[in-house]
Structures are given as structure tokens and as C-alpha cells.
Specification:
The protein is of the alpha+beta class and about 210 residues long. The chain is about 20% helix and about 30% strand. Strands 5-8-9-10-11-12 form a six-stranded mixed β-sheet. A two-stranded antiparallel ribbon has the order 1-2. A hairpin with a 4-residue loop joins strand 10 and strand 11. The termini are far apart.
Length: about 210
């Protein structure tokens, strides 16, 4: 076992919900498998506590909303902020996630990008909504991400999570597309989805 990829104290297994053991991976091991061609570099997954979690395919509506939101964020961002679409956010040696958008200070070295350094994480969710509002929100809270938006691509509503404390997010509100979303730590990015042309999905899109 390569000690550079897996520090000695790290466990070799995790336990799944049904009680069966799972092989526990580190980020370094996953990255080495990608370099070796064992895992395709275009394969979409996240690593949660050492477990590989495949990401659901993205639908056309998800991609359309992400494109419109990205267009707005890149135009609105002041010089001191960076907007990273689909960046890999490494939270510890066994956990990385890939938010649709990650907002952080422009002068921050990407190697130092961790939970507390994230000013805002945005998830656009369709088929993954339950996961993004459930287990993934718990991951963000555990690693100190101070504000997370989960945008329901079908309803065009946004679940805003703020007020991070020991028990998770104290403030969780659902805002409609016509309401303005203003990031607590990046107010320059205040946005109204309806003004971007984003509204609830039509019946044929559901």
C-alpha cells in the first residue's frame, strides 16, 4: 500500500446503509486511478467519506438553467470574486464534491479552497434533488460551507441554507423564481431567476 496515497491511520473500509462493508478510498488514490486510466477522466462522481457516489445524468433543463445562471454570474462578478462552474471542491482526504457553482475570493490559491473559504455553493438539481437537499447538504455543513443554494430545476424554486452552526444550517428557506436571491457573503451576485427567464417547467418538460 502506497503511504503517499493513503496515510497509515486511514481505515480500509466504510459501512454502507445496509451494513455491508465498502472499500474506503482517498482522493489521492482516486486521482492516481484517473491518471492510470482505470477511471475515465470524464466519469462523473463524488467521493463522500471514502465512498464513490455516481452523479446522475443531467437533463436538458438542468443544463439550460446552468448556462443562463453562469452567463449572469460571470457578468455580475466583481474583480475580487471568482465563479467556478463544476469545480472539484476537496473537503478532506476522503471527500470531494462538485457543486454546479462555487464562489470564492479571486486572490485565493485554489489549493487553499476548502469549505470555510467558499462564499457560496450552488447546486442545480433535477433528478438529484433529494440527495442535494439531504446527504449533500449535510456534507456541506459538516465541512463549514457557510451558504448553499439548491435550485429545483423543475419548480424553479431555490432552497437557501444559511446560519451554519453545530447542528447544521439554522436558516433554510424556499424562494420562488420571482423572489430575489442575495448571497450573504457576495451580495454583488444578487439574482432573480424570473429575470433570467427561468420559471417552473412546463408540463411537457416534466
Amino acid at each position: 500500500m502506497n503511504p503517499h496515497l493513503r496515510p497509515v491511520p486511514f481505515p480500509l473500509a466504510t459501512q454502507a446503509a445496509e451494513g455491508l462493508p465498502r472499500r474506503c478510498w482517498t482522493i489521492a488514490e482516486i486521482e492516481e486511478m484517473v491518471r492510470a486510466g482505470i477511471i475515465d477522466e470524464d466519469e462523473r462522481f463524488e467521493l463522500i467519506g471514502g465512498e464513490v457516489v455516481p452523479m446522475a445524468p443531467k437533463g436538458a433543463r438542468h443544463e439550460w438553467i446552468k448556462i443562463e445562471l453562469n452567463r449572469f454570474l460571470q457578468r455580475a462578478a466583481p474583480e475580487h470574486l471568482s465563479i467556478a462552474p463544476e469545480t472539484t471542491l476537496r473537503l478532506d482526504a476522503r471527500t470531494f464534491v462538485e457543486p454546479d457553482f462555487c464562489v470564492f475570493r479571486h486572490d485565493l490559491d485554489l489549493k487553499a479552497l476548502d469549505g470555510p473559504a467558499v462564499l457560496l455553493a450552488i447546486e442545480v438539481a433535477d433528478s438529484s434533488l433529494a440527495y442535494d437537499k439531504g446527504r449533500k447538504i449535510g456534507i456541506y455543513a459538516a465541512f463549514g460551507v457557510r451558504e448553499v443554494w439548491v435550485l429545483d430545476a423543475m419548480k424553479a424554486t431555490t432552497w437557501v441554507h444559511r446560519g451554519l452552526g453545530a447542528a447544521g444550517y439554522a436558516e433554510i428557506v424556499e424562494l420562488a423564481a420571482i423572489e430575489r436571491l442575495t448571497p450573504m457573503l457576495a451580495p454583488e451576485l444578487s439574482v432573480c431567476l424570473a429575470e433570467l427567464g427561468v420559471g417552473p417547467a412546463k408540463e411537457e418538460e416534466r
